[in-house]
Amino acid sequence: MAAAPVWSVDPRTGKQREQVAVEATAEEVDEAVRAAHAARGALADRAVRAAFLRSAAAGLDAARDGLVETADAETALGPARLTGELARTTYQLRSFAGIVDEGAFLDVVVDHPDDTATPPVPDLRRYKVPLGVVAVYSASNFPFAFSVAGGDTASALAAGCPVVVKAHPDHPALSELVAKVLRRAAAEHGIPEGVIGLVHGFEAGVGLIGHPLVAAAGFTGSVRGGRALFDAAAARPVPIPFHGELGSLNPVLVTEAAAAERAEEIGGGLAGSMTLGVGQFCVKPGLVLVPSGGAGDRLVKSLTDAVSDTDAGVLLDHRMRDNFLAGVAERAQLPDVDSPVTPGAGGEHAVSAGFLTVPAQRLAAEGAYDLLLEECFGPVTVVARYADEDEARTVLSRLPGNLTATVQLSSDEAAGRGRGPELLAELTPLAGRVLVNGWPTGVAVAPAQHHGGPYPATTSTSTSVGGTAIERWLRPVVYQNAPEALLPAELRDDNPLGLPRRFNGALQR
Amino acid sequence: MAAAPVWSVDPRTGKQREQVAVEATAEEVDEAVRAAHAARGALADRAVRAAFLRSAAAGLDAARDGLVETADAETALGPARLTGELARTTYQLRSFAGIVDEGAFLDVVVDHPDDTATPPVPDLRRYKVPLGVVAVYSASNFPFAFSVAGGDTASALAAGCPVVVKAHPDHPALSELVAKVLRRAAAEHGIPEGVIGLVHGFEAGVGLIGHPLVAAAGFTGSVRGGRALFDAAAARPVPIPFHGELGSLNPVLVTEAAAAERAEEIGGGLAGSMTLGVGQFCVKPGLVLVPSGGAGDRLVKSLTDAVSDTDAGVLLDHRMRDNFLAGVAERAQLPDVDSPVTPGAGGEHAVSAGFLTVPAQRLAAEGAYDLLLEECFGPVTVVARYADEDEARTVLSRLPGNLTATVQLSSDEAAGRGRGPELLAELTPLAGRVLVNGWPTGVAVAPAQHHGGPYPATTSTSTSVGGTAIERWLRPVVYQNAPEALLPAELRDDNPLGLPRRFNGALQR
Lengths: 509, 509
Hints:
- Two copies of one chain form a homodimer.
- Chain A is an alpha/beta fold.
- Helices cover 36% and strands 21% of the residues of chain A.
- The longest helix of chain A is centred in the first third of the chain and has 24 residues, at 79-102.
- Chain A is globular.
- The model of chain A has no long low-confidence stretch (mean pLDDT 97).
- Chains A, B: One of its GO terms (molecular function) is 2,5-dioxovalerate dehydrogenase (NADP+) activity.
């Protein structure tokens, strides 16, 4: 059987641009994993991998114009957004280099012997070691930041783990270009190029998760695809951690007082957030609880105006376009669902933004309306009008897990009067990031960031953005009564590497 | 159908002591989980839960004599060992109270807005919140330390999670007594007694892992039982973390130089470690690589002498005794396997310790001898005689994951000469705890402890002993642009609770 070709496709026309590669055979997947595994020793030195990450960032910055051009041709996301996304990606690589330098992620803990403990404590010295080869499944919607050189790859390399990337079929040409830059950066530091593997094809992705030398996986994508891979990871003879970011509705609660105070501002802000990137953000607000009555009506009016003014856009591929159109149509035909601005086709390749409204009470119990509590990828949101706070709370209590939950408060509520503090506590069980008076689109790269949440937002308690993303690729090991002469430098009493640590119970910077 | 009775059985006679309870029905499991879930708010205050943990420890200490008597009657582990295990258990509860007080486990990270970042960073404040109800599956072999009030329960309560324990059928009467002490301690602090649920019966354990309000599970037991529960946890509509400690061979490598220097000391130490608690430790050394030749012969001779002198002992139950006798017989009948001291039946209820020897080359490739690379619970170990280091290394490379790996070195090797440092690095991939010149039995409760290892030692990268065991029951949440007036005290700029944290990138004690 001839190898299946991998085509780069222009979503603005639906036309094939070029053949980029062929789908990887089982043998090629095996080769990529073995090459990555063989490269792991070259990542052992923290100074080397920090330098590698910085070279990778510099290489991507230097190749910017060509990369953005290819990315735009394959994704239609536009040069401005893609230039920004690339900058974010290289910033992230450099941030992880800083995290490697600091070494706090090693979680060093040293306990000297203590005969007064029950039972007595021997000499114990713990830190974290890399898990091994990490499989990274790229996202469609962030061709740079959640793809070949994205957060999963950056954090895995920072942890000392080689990576084999399953390229997303929406940007195979870009994937090849970025992988080349990373490999060149590796070679600069004497790291075998196999440290970054790249495979194309659905079967290759399935093969990757089952490979005995793959030790963990990161994934960004759909609930269906992610769950299938999660299940495969759990069913292995030796199960492995699967850190998947699958789907999220990202609910927004607008209080009565907030609507009264800022109806137009909120309506306009929502329009901007839900249409950003043609609605193709995993943190797009997909369900907005708005009070019934006049203030809520004003909010919906301003949302209507702003969304009507939004240009049609091209989705990442035609399958997504079909799914979007079908998903919108299926939702819109439910009784009592209105569409003040109807989302739909915008010409042969584009789609136009819109939103639906529904009485919140329709969402209060299991039934056909549960469809409105499922993510619909693309520029559409659902505005649920609630009669009172209990109704809104009932809807929130029915939601599956989310990446984000947002509350729009009045100035009084934000100042701690009224129910502000309770609302924050009530939203906390729903999500991994809780926002006040903002919009969830835009995920900053920062030490405190948490981009994850209860299932199906993620399949683990981890984050795929921010400094702590590195924790996913490590496991602890403790040495008992190992003589100083045999210990890694990280664990020696005199702390020659100046690592932050816990020493005899006390935290030391 | 009448409810199935739960009997307390004396393993020294095989006779039923008393009926303790009945197996929980599905409705009773549901009630226990709902009661635990309803109690979670009462654990929200860290001061309250630290006080609860200390009261639980004090209550157990006060009830010591009765508890030890019941434990001994059900497990035959002996009053001395059980008194020590109870002391360890209350020490552990108090240690977790200290961990709660300190609050480092909250992992507080605060980032002020930063417009110079790419993209700009908003105000982000992260900490960790409890996952919810934790299901704890008790172990047979540690009726105190890995059971109702053991490490899983202590760490879950410390994290703010209510617990429902599946009692182990080997000590149901003790389980009831300990649960009562914990509930009394809870009541002292205004915490509903439902914060500690206790259910008996196999079906109850299966029901527990599938309950929608169970948010995570801890398990200590066999590979078969643990894997079945792991699979069930992963197959739920909403999968949950399953932290299982399943099985471990705990290999020991004795170098040629170590044998030459300390043959008798090593043989005697091994005998003590493998027969401790009648060989019923998850960290019992189950495979010992000993050089062929004279020094190794001396080691085997001293092991023979010491094991021959060991008294027969009673295993935890008769099923284990049957499995032990069958497992030993199956191993002993392999060609080239000798038993210098034959393990076997010691009277009607007890067993006698012994060990097997085998040429290491028999273990170098897949085949019938793989049985020797599986844990055999009870007082037996396998001594594999290796011709050269490569042969030993080949055997080590074939092992599944382990809780511990041990190397016995000569004084020269321990001082860093010869292959000491490389051997330590070679053993690291095998286990979560690597020991030098010691024995793996005995797991200290300490900040640096790591009791876990690659699968099947554990089903996750976590530990069930030591301070970081608390991490299993938490998930991060970040607040974005939440006004100071709405923030939990843990996340405020002025740090009113004095928590260690990362503040604008810098670690603060």
